[in-house]
Amino acid sequence: MARRKMIYEGKAKILYEGPEPGTYVQYFKDDATAYNAEKKAVIEGKGVLNNRLSEFFMIGLGQIGVPTHFIRRLNMREQLIRQVEIVPLEVIVRNVAAGSMAKRLGMDEGTALPRPIVEFSLKDDKLGDPLVPEEYIIAFGWASQQELDDIISMALRVNDYMSGVMHGVGIKLVDFKIEFGRLWDNEFPRLVLADEISPDSCRLWDVETGRKLDKDVFRQDLGDLADAYTEVAKRLGVMPSNVTHRPKPTLIN
Ligand code: UDP
Predict the structure, then answer these.
(1) Does 250 fall in a domain?
(2) Would you say the pTM of this structure is higher than 0.90?
(3) At what angle do helices 46-63 and 225-235 cross, to 10 degrees?
């Protein structure tokens, strides 16, 4: 059977043409990358887990009124999504200092922030996704002021929802990255949550032990990444039945 047309291949996902106009099929790969793809590996089962977890969060967010690109999961590795025009920003929400913020400001990882902080990076791998102030976003037209206001309020709603869901299963949501897309209704754009929400793009720490259950396990060689993601999926009751045996990750240089 002829394979669908590939639209775009990213580091962790592939987009294919969808079955109807205005749709794409989003395929979750097992590839893991870190440090702007300087470190790479194949983690068997990661794509299956992220497909399930992203489905779980997108459906939950949809149910509380946050619009998303998600239509339905098609199979173990694929979901049907709406075709959107991606806003070229990585929207990062932080509850606790970690990663680049802790480094930039000389803060101890784990310091609680006085309130959730929303920041933006320009989506540009060649430039290493630089942090950009809101003024740049408006001046360069990456998003309008109205869109930026909507992005911030949706990002904070996503944070409240995700923090609550994670707290319920003994996990602290330290920070996460999301992306937004424009859906065109005639000539009017409407913003929806796009891309994915998975442990690839969140920091998740066990409340009791501080164990990391996210991509930092891979970034910092802290153990088996698929085990960490499986733990998150199990706690949330999102556990695909046939991901049990996994060989160790294979390095691809
Ligand atoms: N993040 C991401 N993709 C990126 C950069 C960051 O998903 O290209 C996520 C990252 O996993 C973390 C949050 O955004 O949950 C904040 O990341 P940070 O700015 O601390 O950068 P990092 O330390 O990951 O380089």
Answers:
(1) no
(2) yes
(3) 30
